[in-house]
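Hi team,

As requested, here is the filled-out complex form for the flavin-adenine dinucleotide run. I kept the field names the same as last time so the parser does not choke. Let me know if anything looks off before we queue the next batch.

— J.
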Amino acid sequence: MEETVKVLIIGSGPAGYTAAIYTSRANLAPVLYEGIEPGGQLTTTTDVENFPGHPDGVTGPDLMAQMRRQAERFGADIRTGTITRVDLASRPFHVVVDGTREIKAETLIIATGASAKYLGLPSETKFRGQGVSACATCDGFFYRKKEVAVVGGGDTACEEASYLASLCKRVYMIVRKPHLRASKAMQQRVFNTPNIEVLFEHNTAEVLGDESGVTGALLRRNDGTEVKIDIAGFFLAIGHHPNTELFSDQLALDAEGYIKVEPGTSKTSVEGVFAAGDVRDPHYRQAITAAASGCIAALDCERFLLR
Ligand SMILES: Cc1cc2nc3c(=O)[nH]c(=O)nc-3n(C[C@H](O)[C@H](O)[C@H](O)COP(=O)(O)OP(=O)(O)OC[C@H]3O[C@@H](n4cnc5c(N)ncnc54)[C@H](O)[C@@H]3O)c2cc1C
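And here is what came back:
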């Protein structure tokens, strides 16, 4: 017989686990599918120093294991598996796990996250977490008084470069085009910051490093000439990819593919479907904001079911 659950949570990052903690404590017997990255993005990093309640810092995997344990303590049913299809046309929603198993869900909390885009260089992959980062807010602090580079020419890249410039000795911006794509105000901020140097018409050929991590980058100008810069941190700011393919023709998404929610809530364009974490947040993308929005989604979901 096909299983029907009250609350189905998709994703096991801070948003999904927090939603599981709240909905299990509300006696809603949530079922959570963890997807291909159990614990989410934080499991790919070592030091997390900005999650409240951990004055000495905590590793990403430890923090996520604690959240999981906390959800399980209240009875959340955490399962291995990836949601491969959803049908949101009518409630209960029809959900397929790993292409075979079918489940019906009275409500859905989507917490599938957003993945940072990388250039795709093998050397970039090799030094990920050892100098290569896609989050200046998360990792900038580790590069205080050092030289770093930011890849990208849009608003986010300018924002990340400005933030890093307040911590680091020097920030190179590696920009493919002869101009920045960012708004005029952001461009002005970058050009007025003395320790940001914009390298127009440069592409990264290789991230350089040794056993200690990143030590530099080899850049190729559009005219074919090469230049090497010495840096300790290499920050990507070329965009994120929200994990929303499953929902693309069923939920309202913004131009970049993030799930649109009713302002101040987690309510999506379909009644009974709630979104939490990076998948609905093009701006903040932090563990604490993801956890907070997991709480909001759980409370919205609980109120919806009580109606
Ligand atoms: C290297 C790195 C370091 C970071 N450092 C920090 C830091 O120090 N501090 C900080 O606050 N933030 C940090 N962040 C950002 C933080 O990790 C994210 O903001 C946070 O994890 C977002 O949580 P989330 O729950 O929205 O999604 P995610 O953590 O992205 O989790 C998404 C989950 O959805 C699952 N999923 C996706 N598709 C499916 C599917 N079809 N079916 C089932 N499951 C699915 C995945 O398996 C995953 O479990 C860092 C990020 C990275 C990449």
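Two things worth flagging: DSSP finds seven helices and 19 strands in the chain. The longest helix spans residues 287-306.

Thanks,
J.
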